[in-house]
Write a structure and sequence with these properties.
The protein has about 70 residues and is α+β, with helices and mostly antiparallel strands. The protein has one domain: Rhinovirus 14, subunit 4, CATH 4.10.80.400. A 3-stranded mixed beta sheet has the order 2-1-3, with no helix packed on it. It is elongated.
C-alpha cells in the first residue's frame, strides 16, 4: 500500500435525528443522519404514519368526486 495517499481514518460520532449517537471509525469528521436503526420502521417494527398538510384528504377529495363533475 502506498503511503500518504489515503485519507485519515479516525474515530467519529454519528448523530441521528432521534437523538441516538453511534461511535464509529470514518474519514468524515462528524456525521448527521435523519434515520437510524433505532428509529427506522424496518428495525423497530412500528409504522409511523405522517400525513403532512392533509395530502391524503386532498387525494380522497379529488378522486372520490362523482363521475359527472368533470
Amino acid at each position: 500500500m502506498k503511503k500518504a495517499i489515503h485519507p485519515d481514518y479516525k474515530p467519529t460520532v454519528i448523530h441521528c435525528a432521534c437523538g441516538k449517537t453511534y461511535s464509529v471509525g470514518s474519514t468524515a469528521e462528524d456525521i448527521h443522519v435523519g434515520i437510524c436503526a433505532a428509529c427506522h420502521p424496518f428495525f423497530t417494527g412500528k409504522q409511523k404514519y405522517v400525513d403532512t398538510a392533509g395530502r391524503v384528504e386532498k387525494f380522497r377529495k379529488r378522486y372520490n368526486q362523482p363521475s359527472d363533475a368533470k
